[in-house]
Design goal:
TIM Barrel; Immunoglobulin-like; 17 strands
């Protein structure tokens, strides 16, 4: 990766700046994306790179061949794939804004061989840039290649084959179950969301790869709930607690939804301002998380909250013995390069504040907490309980 972006925590609007057909005219364009505290511009064309450089936004290149659904990697020969990637790299030039090249969204297993060729070609022609491929979530259809979305018998097989056959620089996937769950009232959808995090995390750790998660700041379908400040925080902080290295938001612009950051008339909605605040917190905490290694993930209090999720990994952990709260909690345990302990706590309720009393392992001692106000770790006074707003996360470390 280009050293300019060595410590970047990608916060990505999962959107094409000119529309996926290349015809989009955005009233609120790259400047508003920067104002919304994104660190990445989304999918752009070469003519956007000067603005990305000026706004200090990393860019994922979206290329003209991809404007139509008729383009499929599986239809290309090895020679054609090499020529396509070489042409993309030559077209872009040497702009320091370029972080990655968009390859494909949600491929099936039948596509993996040729995607591997595309990834290898990009490593040859632009070794300091990344290939961006986004995968299906675990609720995609499974079965025969070409007759199902995944083209595998299980989700785990899909992930494992993707990594071994494509050799990607990271794993990216999307999950919108938080929005579908009606503010976490439908426990089976939340179970799917947490399991998806654990499934991707396990494969990423096994292959020493970072992973990215795409979540949602909009009303996906009319039957789903619109986003709230709490559900946006919950999606961001659970990604961090599982060890995710990026949070993406599908989508920034509205595609017919009444509830999106930018509506169909090109106006900023109230959602834009709450998304900007969530991204502001990610800008502070993300680079800190980049320096940590995820060691364990646990859940606390889910048995009484949602019995269907009672099989998720439970405490005690290496650093946290026990948590007491009326709200369900997620616990991510981490170590820094000196093997010092860190803990991320997340209130999984999008509706109620959590009052948390904790018993720490001796190694953690009396922890201090990272403020997303000033980006500094501050001591926790005395033995007071911790208060977490709905969806809120808190990063702790040994003082």
């Amino acid at each position: 990766m280009d050293t300019k972006w060595a410590n970047l925590f990608p916060i990505l609007p999962w959107d094409a700046q000119h529309g996926f057909d290349g015809k989009g005219m955005r009233r609120h364009g790259l400047k508003s994306i920067a104002d919304c505290n994104f660190t990445m511009a989304g999918f752009v064309y070469p003519q956007d790179l000067a603005a990305c450089e000026e706004l200090n936004l990393a860019a994922i290149m979206y290329n003209e061949e991809q404007r139509t659904a008729a383009f499929r990697w599986i239809d290309q020969s090895a020679e054609q794939i090499d020529a396509i990637i070489r042409r993309w790299v030559e077209r872009v030039g040497n702009s320091p804004a370029v972080y990655a090249y968009y390859i494909v969204d949600e491929p099936g297993s039948q596509d993996f061989h040729n995607l591997g060729l595309a990834v290898a070609a990009l490593k040859k022609y632009a070794p300091d840039k990344l290939a961006y491929i986004n995968l299906f979530p675990n609720y995609a259809t499974m079965g025969e290649p070409g007759k199902s979305q995944l083209g595998t018998a299980t989700y785990e097989e899909h992930l494992e084959r993707f990594v071994t056959e494509v050799n990607p620089p990271f794993i990216s996937y999307d999950s919108y179950q938080v929005q579908y769950s009606q503010d976490a009232r439908e426990a089976d959808k939340m179970e799917s969301y947490y399991n998806n995090l654990l499934q991707v995390r396990a494969v990423a750790l096994r292959h020493n790869l970072p992973f990215w998660q795409i979540v949602s700041p909009m009303q996906i379908f009319e039957r789903s709930m619109p986003p709230t400040p709490a559900t946006m925080l919950l999606q961001a902080y659970t990604t961090l607690a599982a060890g995710g290295r990026s949070v993406g938001w599908f989508t920034y612009y509205s595609y017919g939804s009444s509830y999106a950051p930018i509506d169909d008339q090109g106006n900023k909605t109230w959602i834009w301002y709450y998304l900007a605040e969530t991204n502001r917190q990610l800008q502070i905490i993300g680079p800190v998380m980049n320096a940590l290694t995820s060691t364990n993930v646990y859940f606390s209090g889910l048995q009484q909250y949602a019995p269907v999720m009672e099989h998720l990994p439970a405490l005690p952990g290496a650093f946290v013995v026990k948590l007491e709260s009326e709200m369900p909690l997620m616990v991510g345990e981490f170590e820094d390069e000196k093997k010092l302990p860190y803990v991320m706590l997340v209130n999984l309720s999008p509706e109620r504040t959590a009052c948390v009393t904790a018993i720490w392992q001796e190694i953690l001692g009396r922890p201090e907490a990272l403020s997303v106000g000033d980006g500094v770790f501050h001591p926790i006074p005395g033995n007071r309980p911790l208060w977490l707003a709905p969806g809120m996360g808190l990063l702790l470390r040994k003082s």
